[in-house]
What we know:
71% of the residues lie in helices and 0% in strands. The protein is an all-alpha fold. It has a single domain (19-281), classed as Farnesyl Diphosphate Synthase (Orthogonal Bundle). The N and C termini lie far apart (44 Å).
Amino acid sequence: MNTATLSSGENQNDSSQVLRGSKSNFLLSFLSLPTEQREGISHFYALSRVIDDAVDEHGAEEAAGLLEFWKREVALCYSDEPTHPITRSMRDSVRRFDIPRRYLELLIEGCEMDLRKKRYENFTELYEYCYRVAGVIGLTCMKIFGLGGERAEQSAVDLGLALQLTNILRDVKADAALGRIYLPREECLRFGVTEASLLRGTMEAGFRPLFAFQAERAQDYFDRAFAAMRELPRKPLVAAWIMGKTYEKILKKIQARHYDVFSKKVQLSKPVKLWIALREKFR
């Protein structure tokens, strides 16, 4: 899909259509929210999804054009009338929840990094990427949940990092197939793991110490986020608790498989996800 098609009005899915076509672990958590917040987070999720898909489902040149289109649409959310149904809905959420324009710009910048950067030298570099594609998602969600302040914002960033680091570990094989290695190069070298071995896409015993190190870091971010969230009102954060505990369960499952993320994608069954959602909602 090119930008001319988007601008002409053809194939313009709205937020509800994007949600219906998604299999994200986030969706069940949205049901715990009051109507206005559920609509706001659904509009934001749809925007995030189409921005991410612009990179993952298109060649580099077309993806760059699509991201430029979404940049213009985000700008219009704050100044005029967006042309796409998703950004028209997002404009209403931006105004209702006072979502900073910079959050949405950073999200697009993070996706742009996937077009030009396939390797990360150290965790400092990876953190910059994760902050853009996940930390600002947490910050935006916190605005929709109606909570502010330093502790709320830091917990949002920490939870976003935990989720993204879990995704990176789970998706090592899928990302390698796209030529991407998010695991920091200096850490791979420290544990004796070569780029070539990761790109082969098969589990090797030598990967386990490196993957265990990555899992420990992700768990540390979960622990920090949950500790801060316990000091905040629980009711506005039920959706965040569901998201966080769902992804922590995925991390635990990766560990239970002895870090074999190559043989089969690590997923949770619908009953398990529903159990987590109900447990967190009624805790």
